[in-house]
Amino acid sequence: MATRLRSIPPTIFSEMSALAVRTGSLNLGQGFPDQDGPPAAVEAAVDALRTGRNQYPPGPGIPELRTAVAAHQARHYDLELDPQSQVVVTAGATEAIAAAILAFVNPGDEMVVLEPFYDSYVACIEMAGGVRRPVTLRAPDFRLDVDALRAAVTERTTTLLLNTPHNPTGAVLTRDELDAVAAVAQEHDLVVVTDEVYEHLLFDGRQHVPICTLPGMWDRTVTISSAGKTFSFTGWKVGWVTGPADLVGTVMAAKQWLTFSNAAPLQPAVALALNQETGFYDALAKALQAKRDVLVDGLRRLDMDVYAPEATYFVTTDVRRYGHSDGMAFCLALPERAGVVAIPSQVFYDEHDEGRHKVRWAFCKDMAVIEEGVRRLEDADLRA
Ligand SMILES: Cc1ncc(COP(=O)(O)O)c(C=O)c1O
What is the pTM assigned to this prediction? Predict the structure, then answer.
């Protein structure tokens, strides 16, 4: 195995989802929804399969999808994008993240990244030969520590990887926090790569603000999103990158050698969804908020410390008061003890002490599954 891969553990999601299948447990681990996206988009995909849209699409994506992404950015954020030069379609946000990191990070360059991190960030920074500089979002409210952000930047820092709404904490960066990030980026001339895949899944009336819309940020920001989260098509792996032509072109320079292109018959279907199914994600956010409330209440009844999320599919708990000092041991025992799978958040942290006792639960599942999960947890003897 190449040395650059040796320090990267296999993704926790494969391990825990396999454990869920093996033990017949409810999977409150991996963030894939139980319900598919809009039926009209599925029909459009079937139609595309049947009408011969099965060969390589253009590397940057089919024009109708790039146009639909541009129209989405205009509608929601008042951004005027040229679909030709400022939008690139990718194999999910995952490829967009990989391509952006390969595009902007030289070996030895430092990249500032919010911790806990989505696990592909760590792997991609390692594979690019970069050095991650974590800024920890700390419980209970997971706010950005602006002093820690400033302290993380050195003369070797070239890029900042942002994620808001944030997985796994469910935090939504406030306007003040975004202003602070923008100030640091401009002061140190950083490129900002921002993963905004949960842009539509906010709760309690919160609004998503893309950092690229802040003064002085457009020219230095590439923004990533995906149909996986917005339309509950996680298995389609259709994502996109938007931003100024020079930065998007640089991401494309890397992306063309990763997949070149993907998902030919799904791209027109995602275009249709973006143009016509705009009610889908509003309804999804509303439904997720109700599911969050059920799961948060259930976990609180178990006497865990529960950090209710402002967005996303995930809620984090601290299992110490519940008698456990190690979230990994807790999660490995959970299928046997309760027939439920959750994710040990420690895998998302460099600062092991901060993450050791935290557990992430997904609520993008049918309400009946969440209620059953809570019931199983209540019935099980889970104390250490
Ligand atoms: C923060 C974040 N970024 C990216 C992804 C991956 O997105 P995609 O499935 O579009 O590759 C996920 C999926 O869970 C995520 O949570």
Answer: 0.97
